[in-house]
């Protein structure tokens, strides 16, 4: 599965890189944020994304779990009935989180209300409002999006990738919790790490 990328993807910003995921029932959008700008983004099947998270494939945003932050949009209840799609999305969010934490990475859950307030100063903002705020943040449409011949930093961002970008920028301004798991060479012994993981059920590898 191809994804948009540029040369800045190999740069490590101070404080690490943020990989943000807007999860869905069968496909999820993701954006890698480095030095405050998107350097890679895509929307792909959940199974393919889970494989990237487990193996650290292709891009520094996925490889460097110990220095990068994974931000996932949280799902909150507002008292309304929900369908199976919401529970499917919750399941995939949990699988993404477990895969990243198993490799020693930190995870930040960011809720939609937080994203709205961060970008628009109101919880009543909608997707169009957030998209407009993102474009303004990067200097307006001409500077932010640009053209094929002269692309801006948001060139190629579309659909659910806007939500992932908004999520990444919101997470950039939030404190980072300590990772739940660490890589084996950071634990005292591999057996001790396995014992800790078994408390949460079957090890996913």
Task: Describe this protein's structure.
- Helix 1 packs parallel to helix 3, helix 4 (112-120) crosses helix 5 and helix 5 crosses helix 7.
- Residues 7-15, 178-190 and 200-205 have low confidence and may be disordered.
- The chain starts with a strand and ends in a 7-residue tail after the last helix.
- 39% of the residues lie in helices and 18% in strands.
- It has a 6-stranded mixed beta sheet, sandwiched between helices.
- It is built from 8 helices and 6 strands; from the N terminus they run ββββααβαβααααα.
- The radius of gyration is 17 Å and the shape is globular.
Summarize the structure.
The protein has about 200 residues and is an alpha/beta fold. It has eight helices and six strands; from the N terminus they run E-E-E-E-H-H-E-H-E-H-H-H-H-H.
Helix percent band: 25-40%
Individual helix count? 8
End-to-end Cα distance, whole Å, is 23 Å
Q: In order across it, which strands form the biggest sheet?
A: 1-4-3-2-5-6
| Percent of residues in beta strands | 15-25%
Give the overall form: globular
Mean pLDDT: 81
Which parts are unreliable, with pLDDT below 50 for 5 consecutive residues or more?
A: 7-15, 178-190, 200-205
List the secondary-structure elements in sequence, H or E. EEEEHHEHEHHHHH
Major sheet characteristics: 6 strands, mixed
């Amino acid at each position: 599965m191809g994804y948009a990328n540029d040369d800045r993807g190999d740069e490590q910003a101070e404080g690490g890189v943020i990989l943000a995921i807007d999860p869905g029932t069968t496909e999820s959008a993701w954006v890698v944020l480095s030095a405050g700008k998107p350097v890679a983004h895509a929307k792909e099947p959940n199974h393919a994304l889970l494989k990237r998270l487990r193996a650290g494939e292709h891009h520094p945003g996925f490889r460097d779990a110990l220095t990068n932050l994974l931000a996932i949009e949280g799902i909150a209840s507002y008292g309304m009935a929900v369908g199976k799609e919401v529970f499917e999305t919750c399941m995939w969010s949990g699988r993404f989180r477990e895969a990243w934490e198993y490799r020693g990475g930190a995870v930040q859950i960011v809720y939609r209300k937080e994203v709205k307030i961060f970008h628009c100063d109101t919880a009543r903002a909608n997707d169009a409002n957030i998209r407009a705020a993102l474009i303004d943040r990067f200097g307006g449409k001409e500077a932010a999006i640009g053209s094929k011949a002269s692309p801006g930093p948001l060139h190629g961002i579309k659909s659910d990738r806007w939500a992932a970008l908004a999520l990444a920028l919101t997470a950039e301004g939030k404190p980072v919790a300590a990772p739940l798991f660490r890589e084996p060479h950071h634990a005292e012994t591999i057996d001790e790490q396995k014992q800790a993981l078994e408390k949460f059920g079957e090890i996913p590898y």
